[in-house]
TrEMBL record:
CDD domains: TM_PBP2 (cd06261). It is a multi-pass membrane protein. GO terms for cellular component: plasma membrane. It holds the Pfam family OppC_N. This is ABC transporter permease. InterPro entries: MetI-like, MetI-like_sf, OppC_N. PROSITE patterns: ABC_TM1. Residues 162-350 form the ABC transmembrane type-1 domain. The chain crosses the membrane at residues 41-63, 166-191, 211-240, 328-353.
Amino acid sequence: MSSSTPASSSTAWTTESAVVTQAPSPSPWRRTWWRFRQQRLGYWSLIIFGALFVISLFGELLANDRPLVVRYEGHYYFPIVKDYSELVFGGDFPARANYLDPYIRSRLESKGNFAIYPPNHYHYDTIDYFAAHPFPAPPSATNWLGTDQFGRDVLSRLLYGFRLSVLMALALTVSGVLLGVLTGAVQGFYGGRTDLIGQRLIEIWSSMPDLYLLIIFASIFEPTLWLLFILLSMFGWLVLSDYVRAEFLRNRSLDYVKAARTMGLTNWQIMWRHVLPNSLTPVITFLPFRMSAAILSLTSLDFLGLGVPPPTPSLGELLQEGKNNLDAWWISISAFSALVITLLLLTFMGDALRNALDTRMRGSAFGGGK
C-alpha cells in the first residue's frame, strides 16, 4: 500500500498541474480575428487600405501650396495654420501671400531665411499661374501626375478625393448599419403583424428607382455634402435589414431567449443584450461591401455632375475631366486606377471577413482552418 501511494499522488499532482497550466480557451472574436489573418489577401488589403486612409487624413501636411514653417528675418511663421499677407514677406500687396510666386519664393530663400514645404507643393484647388506648360500638363517633376484642364494638380486632387470618398462611405455605412439593424431587429423579433407591415413598407420603398430619385433631387437642390449624405442614406440600409431580420427570426425561438424571458427581461433587453450579439455576422460582413457601394454611388453622381459642388475634389469629377479631355490620358488613368484599387481592397476585405465568420469553420481548432 505504501509503495502505491507516492505513484498515485504523483499522478494526481501531474493531472492537477496540467489542469492549472492549461491555457484558457480564446474568445470567439479572437478566433475570428485569427481566421481573418489567415486570409492573406484580405488581411493585407486591410493594412494597405488603412495606411492609405491614414495618409489621406494628413493631406494638408503632404499636399499644400503653403509652407509648413517659414523663418523670415529672424521670425518664425506657420502658413499651414494661418494666413499672412505679402507685406509680411516683402511683397507689394496686402492680399494673402502666394507662395508659388517666384518673387515671394526668392524672398523666403534669401540669406538667413528658409521655408519648409510639403512634399507636394499644391493644394487640391491650387492653380499655378506661373506654370511653364499650358493646361492640362502631362506628369513632370513638378506635378507628379500632371495637371487637369484648370491647372490643378492631379495627385493632390486624388489624395483629397480619396479621403472625401472614404469618409463619406464610412458615414453612409454607419447610418446604414443603424437603420438596417433597427428595422430588421424589430421585424424579426416581434414577427407577426409587425413583420408583415414592415416588409410591405420596405418592399414599396425598395421598388422606387433610387438612382432616378437621386438625380431628380440633386438637380432640384443645390448639391452639398449633407444633401448627398441624406439622399444616399435613404436606400443604403435595405439589404442589411433583410439579413438582420432573418437572423432575429431564427434566434428568437432558441432556448437562451426563452430563458431570458423567464428571468423577467424586457423585449428590448433581450433584443440588444442577447439576440443582437448572436446576429452580428451579417452586419460585420456587410461593412466593406456597403463602403464599396457608397464610394461607387458617390463617384457615379460626381461623374454625372450631380455630386459634390466644385471645386471639391472627388474621383468622379476627375473621371469626368478625363472624359472631357481624352488627350490628357494621365487624368483618366490616375482616377480610374485609384477607384479600382480602392474597390478591390474593400472587396478582398469583405471576402476575408465572410470566410472568417463562416460557421463551418468555427469547429476547427484555434490555429487550424483557413
